[in-house]
Write a structure and sequence with these properties.
- By secondary structure, the chain is an alpha/beta fold.
- Helix content is about 40%, strand content about 20%.
- It contains 15 helices and twelve strands.
- It has helices at about 5-10, 15, 20-25, 45-55, 80-90, 105-115, 130-140, 185-200, 205-215, 225-230, 285-295, 325-345, 355, 365-370, 400-420, and strands at about 35-40, 60-65, 75, 95-100, 145-155, 160-165, 175-180, 215-220, 300-310, 310-315, 350-355, 375-385.
- The strands form two sheets. It has an eight-stranded mixed sheet, sandwiched between helices.
- The N and C termini lie far apart (about 45 Å).
- Mean pLDDT is about 90; it is low at about 5-25.
């Protein structure tokens, strides 16, 4: 084992509990004095070391995982590990910068803004799950002719996985919108609810056209337990909430699907943020959610997952650098999408397959939908901010609406270009 890796894995009990104790005793996790580092790996050895640490260590919270050379890796480090971190950087010759000296200050600033806004449900703040579900109830009452409820199962903590289907007429191709599979990515449920509202209320002719000529299946929070936990206990929680012993909780739900499960870009350590689980669909929420998706096979023609952050538009595969069957079309459509997205606010995205654009990852929902359900238009957004931002998951609430607006522009481009290529014609491009 690499001597540096041995140093990082020489953890004491306090180190292990840094990220997990708040799930045990019910107090709110704080990150006072924790630093956010931005690392730039320059060699394969750098990447290998960072990947090994991410998959085995409980002391370092990788906000954006190691992907490829010359990309930015974000990691939160506890004060008692600063010396070890600096030593590793020095011994391995890795370039890094301190992006934030006190991560808690970002969380506190976000909380202050949240507390000042007392409006009814809208998009000037981030809302807890109960508020989202109450708003969904209102939507279903306000638009009964074109909406119907989605129930995609229950979670470990007995919460419903809820959403809304919009359908203006029979025979429409389907678009599935997946939000909030990673709990801490609050911009995702916000953008997906904004999209839902826009599809029902817009006067814009282009958006009205796609609203009425596609069936929309929108689930704003696929991981409700984790999302609630980020609002009550630990703002930076990523996973589900099933206990796995030794103070470890949850599985990365976007590594738990039964396609190339556990092959690459995962951890077998239950305390890791990328723990894939003991087996595919070990998590009740992912099993029931996938069952719901499977019930729509033949009805879904486009799948769009929403994550944060890094400003990327990704498509299959995550487990291999082998090109997807319709790689050229996915790239072409993706390029049209990010061009459309950039026009409004000059926001720059990169498009590409998961494996080569961000990092290897297996057992993901998008790849499962693409390969098992044969949905040939499958994409994942990594929304604002960009990888070098100090905000990360604490994207200011005043960026919700701009992010949603530019994203809707890109969705229009995806659907229009795919239609030009024949993806929604019977018997073609399926």
């Amino acid at each position: 084992m690499n001597v540096i890796l041995k140093l990082f894995l020489g953890l004491n009990v306090i180190s292990v509990l840094v990220w997990t104790k708040y799930s045990v005793n019910g107090t709110v996790a704080r990150y006072d004095g924790y630093r956010l580092y931005k690392i730039t790996p320059r060699t394969d050895q750098h990447l290998k070391l960072l990947n090994d640490i991410e998959s085995t260590s409980d002391s370092f919270n990788f906000i954006s995982g190691p992907s490829k050379e010359d990309t930015v890796v974000s990691v939160i480090v506890a004060p008692h590990k600063f010396a070890d971190f600096d030593l590793m950087m020095s011994m391995e010759g890795m370039t890094y910068e301190i992006s934030e000296n006190n991560v808690q200050s970002l969380i506190d600033e976000e909380s202050l803004i949240q507390s000042r806004i007392s409006e009814n449900f809208g998009w000037k703040r981030y809302y807890p799950l109960d508020n989202i579900y109450k708003w969904i109830d209102g939507i279903l009452e306000e638009y009964p002719e074109v909406t119907s409820p989605i129930y995609a199962g229950k979670t470990y903590e007995e919460r419903d996985i809820r959403g809304v289907k919009i359908s203006y007429k029979n025979g429409n191709p389907g678009v599935f919108i997946e939000g909030g599979i990673h709990a801490r990515e609050w911009i995702s449920p916000s953008v997906t609810t904004y999209l839902l509202n826009t599809l029902l209320s817009t006067k814009n002719e282009s958006i009205r056209r796609i609203a009425e000529n596609f069936d929309w299946y929108i689930v704003p929070s696929v991981n409700p337990d984790g999302y609630v936990h980020t609002h009550t206990s630990n703002r930076l929680w990523r996973k589900t909430r099933k206990p796995y012993g030794s103070g470890c909780f949850g599985v990365d739900p976007n590594r738990n699907f039964d396609f190339q499960f556990g092959k690459i870009g995962v951890s077998k350590n239950p305390c890791s943020d990328i723990y894939s689980g003991p087996k595919a669909f070990s998590e009740v929420e992912m099993k029931s959610y996938s069952d719901y998706l499977a019930s729509l096979q033949g009805k879904i023609h486009t799948f769009l997952g929403f994550h944060a952050y890094s400003q990327l538009l990704l498509f299959p595969y995550g487990h291999t650098n082998k090109k997807a069957e319709n790689y050229d079309d996915l790239l072409d459509i993706g390029n049209k999408a990010i061009s459309a997205l950039a026009r409004r606010f000059n926001t720059t995205y990169i498009v590409g397959d998961v494996y080569n654009t961000i990092y290897p990852a297996s057992g993901c929902s998008m790849d499962w939908v693409y390969e098992i359900l044969k949905v040939r238009l499958s994409y994942t957004y990594e929304l604002r901010p960009n990888a070098r931002s100090s905000f990360g998951f604490e994207l200011p609430a005043d960026k919700i609406i701009p992010t949603a607006l530019e994203t809707i522009d890109s969705i229009l481009a995806i659907l229009n270009r795919a239609k030009e290529l024949g993806y929604y014609e019977s018997g073609k491009k399926k």
